[in-house]
Amino acid sequence: MFFKRVLYYLNPATLFGKGTDNSSLRFMHGINRISILLFLFGVVVLVVRAMNR
Fold first, then answer.
1. Structural domain harbouring 6
2. pTM over 0.90
3. d(CA 36, CA 15)
4. DSSP state of 53
5. CA end-to-end span of the chain, whole Å?
6. 1-41: per-residue pLDDT in tens?
7. Is the dihedral of CA 37, 42, 48, 51 positive or negative?
8. How many domains does the chain have?
9. Burial group, residue 33, by CB count within 10 angstroms (0-12, 13-18, 19+)
10. Are 36 and 30 in contact (CB under 8 A)?
11. Residue 46 — very low, low, confident or very high, per pLDDT cuts 50/70/90?
12. 52 to 41, 43, 44, 45, 49: CA distances (angstroms)
């Protein structure tokens, strides 16, 4: 259930969908998505580097 919500939140199709009219809230959600994606990218890089040792 948790992973389903995270995947929905990070889905590019829902990224450009009609959201709320509050632009500050939309920007906040966009920044949150970017930070989650950067975190996941960093975790992947750490795992790959650990496996190559």
1. 2-51
2. no
3. 13
4. -
5. 34
6. 878 887 777 777 776 666 667 888 888 888 888 898 899 99
7. negative
8. 1
9. middle
10. no
11. very high
12. 17, 14, 12, 11, 5
